[in-house]
Request: fold
Amino acid sequence: MANPSNGRVALVTGASRGIGRAIALGLAEEGYDVVINDIERQSVQLDGVAGEIRAKGRKAWPVFADVSSKAEVEAMVAKALAEAVKIDAVVNNAGILIAKPVDTLEEREWDAVLDVNAKGTFLVIQALLPHFKARKYGRIVNIASIGGKHGAPEQAHYSASKAAVMGFTRVLAQEVGPFGITANCICPGIIVTDMGRTNLEVKEIADRWIANTALARLGQPEDVAGPVCFFASDASAFVTGQTLNVCGGIVLT
Ligand code: NAP
Reply:
């Protein structure tokens, strides 16, 4: 049965697979029409996600951009607004992980991870802010990671990028609050995706993660969608500058 519209439009980056795909589908379930972004090399998969959203009775607009490119992000936001007319909520989900210890980490690898995870989040927000401010409305959800709080060996640059996303979001919330815009972060734990499998390649390590998780299981991409929908909705209208762990209880604060 078609999901009724809630009159809102969301933009999700890195939506062709993994957590981004689950978030896009979760938002469609809640009645959002969804602009879905990924890099152009993912066009077939992104079209597949668009089909899944339309099968739920909601509109979907695939838009390509490498979020680390200011020119591509600006073109993407212009195209998204031309097609969808407005955007109410944005989910900065696109991210990469290159596992490598600090002593052999190359400068270009540090730059690549920081450029996509941290700068990409900034660029998408900067391109959207005029629209949000003009409408005096916006819901910003940035996907960080519990790795940005504690981290794991071979992920120093990834941890730095996600800590940057959290710091950026706290200040952003203060700057945009007077315009009726909220900005919050989600920190997923160990989620079974192509990226998450980086932490799960060795069985003993996967078992240790499960043992260290209060809910005694790994996360699925769909586990992240509900909390994102909360931050994207008006149920969270008085919540901003916050960071929520969605990790099954690995981090208990
Ligand atoms: P994933 O399976 O690797 O999917 C990431 C998606 O982002 C891919 O479709 C990827 O496209 C896209 N992407 C990468 N670089 C991009 C760019 N420059 N511009 C636009 N799209 C880009 O990862 P995931 O596990 O779903 O992770 C999603 C988010 O959750 C990331 O921010 C990640 O850091 C965060 N997170 C994940 C976990 C976990 O355990 N999985 C835990 C904590 C946080 P390509 O396939 O073409 O590269």
